[in-house]
Fold this sequence. Notes:
Blueprint: H1 3-11, H2 19-28
Amino acid sequence: MSSAVALSRQKHGRPALPDDELTASLIADDRVLLVFTPSGPPSGWTTRGLG
């Protein structure tokens, strides 16, 4: 599990699970996990229509 996912789960009072257990848990709840991995540093990201 990525450290960002683990930290987010802990922040919301949920245990950090190994990948296979997390996958089984998401499937059992009919949920999905979207992970966005940028290809560069935040300074290179762009936003459109936000301000």
